[in-house]
TrEMBL record, chain A:
The lineage of its organism: Bacteria, Bacillati, Bacillota, Negativicutes, Acetonemataceae. CDD domains: PsrB (cd10551). It comes from Anaeroselena agilis. Transmembrane segments: none annotated. InterPro entries: 4Fe4S_Fe-S-bd, 4Fe4S_Fe_S_CS, ET_IronSulfur_Cluster-Binding. Keywords: 4Fe-4S, Iron, Iron-sulfur, Metal-binding. Pfam families: Fer4_11. SUPFAM superfamilies: 4Fe-4S ferredoxins (SSF54862). Residues 4-32, 49-80, 81-110 form the 4Fe-4S ferredoxin-type domain. This is 4Fe-4S dicluster domain-containing protein.
From TrEMBL, chain B:
Keywords: 4Fe-4S, Iron, Iron-sulfur, Metal-binding, Molybdenum, Oxidoreductase, Signal. The keyword Iron applies. Belongs to the prokaryotic molybdopterin-containing oxidoreductase family. It comes from Anaeroselena agilis. The keyword Disulfide bond does not apply. This is Respiratory selenite reductase catalytic subunit SrrA. Residues 1-20 form the signal peptide. InterPro entries: Asp_de-COase-like_dom_sf (IPR009010), MoPterin_dinucl-bd_dom (IPR006657), Mopterin_OxRdtase (IPR006656), Mopterin_OxRdtase_4Fe-4S_dom (IPR006963), Prok_Mopterin_Oxidored (IPR050612), TAT_signal (IPR006311), TAT_signal_bac_arc (IPR019546). Residues 39-95 form the 4Fe-4S Mo/W bis-MGD-type domain. Pfam families: Molybdop_Fe4S4 (PF04879), Molybdopterin (PF00384), Molydop_binding (PF01568), TAT_signal (PF10518).
Length: 181, 738
């Protein structure tokens, strides 16, 4: 069984939003619904200033609060690590939207929550998610952590990683490269 | 409904995202119906900017589904930026022009048949040529695909093929051609030290260049970015040096002075391959790093340090040759370009790996067409290359921004505007609107852009790029790559509307003008003829998406009979340009102050640049890309925090921006309101606006009146040496509120 995850090196991100729009086309989303966003932040004072850009999307948590609060089990965690939403079971109560500490759920025009799907259906065929494959700066590596030869497994061995809001105990499957200093 | 956003990094809330029905795709039914449908992959080249990234269009049930980059293509290495996706999705944008149109009043148009439009245009054109000569006919274009229109101009006898380059980068091409006989490109892959000034590959994106830069960074090359703004490239550079806007020439001269005075330059290279070194040095021997520092706001010690580091890593070190930012927008732009050539030559990096290399380009074939009897051409209407007007401006590019003057003077009577929107992308739109006064104005666009709405008498819509085949293109240039490559557009979709290919539009007009057989070929035939000497066919091109030739470009200064053989008079790199010496000017660059400078608490120099998800006007009506703008408040004008504090302006506040436009005895005040982004990432003396906003065509519903555009505040001036438009020589006053 695969164990899908993503490793994001935010220091390489130049904020182009290609990941967002590539994903929108893959999933035929309307312009206002998007599965990944960027967080921009400045540090310091002119002229000693630095910019940080952090891509954020569904963390496919191993301990997903969105699934725990879902009264109909519409949100569920698959054995390969994907957290998905069964639209037929969803009653549109939006508990999951509130429960998600990463604020990555959006509600579509039919009142159903949407979010990053880790490209279910495509990755099983060996395809890369377009948010990863379109990135000119190689910010994202997606793959199978159980396969020691996958690009993500190899890269995870060479870097230190951290997770967003790790203290919430959600155990995200999206890891970030830790930079010194 | 609105979703309020929390952020992890701090509580600076991002914009809420409204969920709406899709503007372009009926995605639900599409996904359901197409789940099992086969996917076809058709190669094309992106039309989101001028890079020509090679892509595969994936089509399901006759609808565009998604795009993938072609991995082999050197300009994008399999990657595409946001603009690519947004512009492709715009094939379904309801704001496209769906059939030929004829003006019936102010912003009023009625449909007209293609046949009738061709007939009326041909009649008017023939009358104008008979009465006023063909020299009053002009073709105004972005550039590229010039062949078809050039053939019509040759046939009637007009020299007026005018490109948008004078609003973009002509100072650079002009200086490099005259000084080095060619445009060299930076060899990022093999460089150890890279100095980028006013060039932001991560904003005006070229994905292949960014990949090379990031790989270079990974292997330890040093990257220095000089820019008044902490641009996207500066974000990933080793150093960002905020320069006082408009003073790059001082910085370059300071570097050159350090290299020469400290004897760090490549003396052997200069001795053998440079002409005019003494003239340059005599004119600049007093322009020390200290002198430069006073002007450009970068400490002298830093200027010397950069010069020394460049020299230490030379020849695998370069000052990137640059593009739009510095190369049209200052009074000193031509001198900036000259100084750029000089700094690189002092490093001896010409035709060296890791330094500057020539572009690789395939040797395309040509259709053999019957020779035609052509009339002698009259003078150019725009004055480019004309003795007493703009003798040193490149005639291959011309001057685009003063067209209304040419029309008012009766020099242009008939105007075609193709794949270009000067009403939005050239200075002073109110002035540009006067184009409508020509006897005949034909716009050939895909969308209801400003030029079509306010200036055109006829609008002849072209097929969208995904709907048409275009002849193969070389992708060499701007960044070094050893092997010639060709990319090409194949039609991925059936035309959605009653549009035509440019070639068929020109055929239609020529036929009605009774010019027989001017275009006796199809695009397929032309493409096949071009590919033949490369051993390729349309089929191989369609299968590969990108063709690469094995003949590599090799380093080594061009020599002939043991002598330097650049395309210049001396065969050497010429530090002095004889043609520039007219009217008592210098042939070498010397410090040229900006035309205007801000004073007082409320004055700023207005500068601009690209945001990574917009080009100029072509992307500004894309629902996907404007949604990105909304998410990130992308249309705000940047202002340094210290300056904003003095004016009482806080992040997100509305401000009024004003400029006085003085042009040929006319004075007007322009006043616009815009939201301000207060930031530490900008030099205090300027405000910065992203270049893709301020649309004023009411028929472009998505981009209409979002943000402001730098062109709103600039007069349509002409820099005399290269024809540039100097739009960063503008001082605006800013005050809080309305
Ligand atoms: S595509 Fe890459 S560089 Fe661009 S915003 Fe996304 S993660 Fe950042
Ligand atoms: S990130 Fe949010 S939506 Fe995704 S699995 Fe975790 S809690 Fe659920
Ligand atoms: S993994 Fe797939 S669904 Fe998730 S953001 Fe990337 S492209 Fe979109």
């Amino acid at each position: 069984m695969a164990h899908y995850a993503m490793l994001i090196d935010a220091a390489r991100c130049t904020g182009c939003a290609a990941c967002r729009v590539a994903c929108q086309l893959q999933w035929q989303l309307p312009p206002e619904v998007f599965f990944n966003r960027l967080e921009f932040r400045e540090h310091g004072q002119y002229p000693d200033v630095r910019q940080e850009i952090v891509p954020v999307q569904c963390m496919h948590c191993d301990n997903p609060p969105c699934a725990t609060v879902c009264p109909t089990k519409a949100t569920y965690k698959r054995a390969d690590g994907l957290v998905l939403i069964d639209h037929d079971k969803c009653i549109g109560c939006k508990y999951c939207v509130v429960a998600c500490p990463y604020d990555v759920r959006q509600v579509n025009d039919r009142g159903i929550p949407e979010k990053c799907r880790f490209c279910a259906g495509f990755i099983e065929k060996g395809e890369q998610p377009p948010c990863a494959s379109t990135c000119m700066n190689d910010v994202r590596v997606f793959g199978d952590l159980d396969d020691p030869n996958s690009a993500i497994s190899k890269k995870m061995k060479t870097v230190q990683v951290y997770q967003l809001a790790a203290e919430k105990g959600t155990k995200p499957r999206v890891f970030y490269v830790k930079r010194g200093g | 409904m609105l979703i309020s956003r929390r952020t992890f990094l701090k509580a600076g809330a991002l914009a809420g995202a409204a969920c709406a029905v899709p503007a372009a795709f009926d995605f639900a039914s599409f996904v359901r119906g197409a789940a099992e449908a086969p996917v076809t992959r058709i190669p094309s080249t992106c039309n989101g900017c001028s890079t020509n990234c090679a892509l595969w269009a994936l089509v399901k049930n006759g609808r565009l589904w998604k795009l993938e980059g072609v991995p082999r293509a050197m300009k994008n290495e399999g990657k595409l930026c946001a603009r690519a996706y947004g512009v492709a999705a715009d094939v379904y944008n309801p704001d496209r022009v769906t059939r030929p149109m004829k003006r019936t009043g102010d912003n009023q148009f009625s449909p007209i048949s293609w046949e009738q439009a061709f007939k009326e245009i041909a009649d008017k054109l023939t009358k104008i040529i008979d009465k006023d000569t063909a020299s009053t006919v002009a073709w105004l274009t972005h550039g590229g695909k010039e062949t078809y229109a050039q053939m019509l101009l040759d046939e009637i006898g007009s020299a007026n093929y005018i490109t948008h380059y004078s609003t973009c980068f002509t100072s650079k091409t002009n200086a490099w051609d005259k000084m080095a006989g060619a445009q060299l490109t930076s060899d990022i892959d093999r460089a150890r030290y890279m100095l980028f000034c006013g060039r932001n590959y991560a904003g005006g994106i070229m994905p292949g260049a960014m990949r090379k830069i990031m790989r270079a960074k990974d292997r330890g090359a040093k990257i220095v970015v000089v820019d008044p703004r902490l641009c996207e490239l500066a974000k990933v550079a080793d150093e960002w040096l905020p320069i006082r806007p408009g003073t790059d020439l001082a910085f370059f001269l300071g570097i050159a002075h350090t290299l020469v005075s400290e004897k760090l330059y490549d003396e052997k290279f200069v001795r053998e391959y440079v002409f005019g070194f003494e003239e340059f040095w005599n004119a600049n021997r007093h322009f020390t790093a200290e002198k430069a520092a006073e002007l450009c706001d970068i400490p002298a010690a830093k200027i010397r340090e950069i010069a020394r580091e460049l020299a230490k890593n030379a020849p695998a070190a370069f000052l990137e040759p640059g593009y739009h930012g510095l190369h049209n927008h200052y009074a000193s732009s031509t001198r900036i370009a000259q100084a750029n050539v000089i700094v690189n030559a002092l490093l001896g990096n010409f035709y060296k790996h890791g330094g500057l290399m020539p572009a690789a380009s395939p040797k395309f074939g040509k259709l053999t067409l019957p020779k035609r009897l052509q009339p002698e051409k009259g003078p150019r209407a725009d004055g480019a290359g004309v003795g007493n007007e703009y003798p040193t401006v490149e005639t291959g590019r011309g001057i685009a921004q003063h067209m209304p003057d040419l029309i008012a003077a009766g020099k242009v009577k008939a105007l075609f505007v193709y794949h270009f929107n000067p009403l939005r992308t050239a200075p002073d739109p109110e002035y540009q609107k006067r184009m409508v006064k020509a006897d005949l104005v034909v716009s050939i666009p895909v969308s209801w852009n400003e030029t079509s709405v306010y200036a055109a008498h006829y609008i002849l819509p072209e097929h969208y790029y995904l709907e048409r085949m275009d002849a193969p293109k070389s992708t060499g240039g701007n960044i070094a790559y050893d092997y010639p490559q060709a990319v090409m557009r194949f039609p991925a979709l059936k035309p959605l509307h009653d549009t035509r290919h440019l070639l068929d539009i020109l055929k239609g007009i020529a036929q009605e003008m009774k010019i027989d057989d001017l275009y006796p070929f199809t695009v397929e035939e032309e493409a096949a003829a071009m590919l033949r000497p490369l051993g390729a066919t349309l089929e191989t091109m369609r299968e590969s998406g990108c063709l690469e030739m094995p003949e590599a470009v090799k380093p080594g200064f061009p020599m002939k009979d043991g002598k330097p053989a650049l395309g210049t008079t001396t065969g050497k790199v010429e530090f002095t340009v004889g043609a520039f010496k007219l009217h008592g000017r210098m042939g070498v660059p010397v410090w040229t102050p900006p035309l205007v400078s801000p004073k007082g608490d409320n004055e700023f120099r207005l500068i601009h640049g690209k945001q990574p998800w917009h080009s100029h006007s072509v992307t500004s009506n894309s629902p996907y890309l404007m949604a990105v703008t909304k998410s990130y408040n992308g249309s705000r004008m940047w202002m340094n925090r210290g300056r904003a504090d003095k004016l009482g302006i806080r992040d997100g506040d509305e401000a009024t921006v004003e400029a006085r436009i003085e042009y040929k005895g006319e004075t007007r005040t322009v006043s616009k309101r815009v939201a301000v982004k207060v930031t530490e990432m900008l030099h205090p003396e300027c405000v910065w606006v992203p270049s893709g906003y301020g649309n004023f065509s009411p028929r472009q519903t998505v981009g209409y009146q979002q943000g402001v555009n730098y062109n709103d505040f600039a007069p349509a001036r002409v820099e005399p040496l290269s024809g540039g438009c100097m739009v960063q020589e503008v001082i605006v006053t800013v005050r809080k509120g309305g």
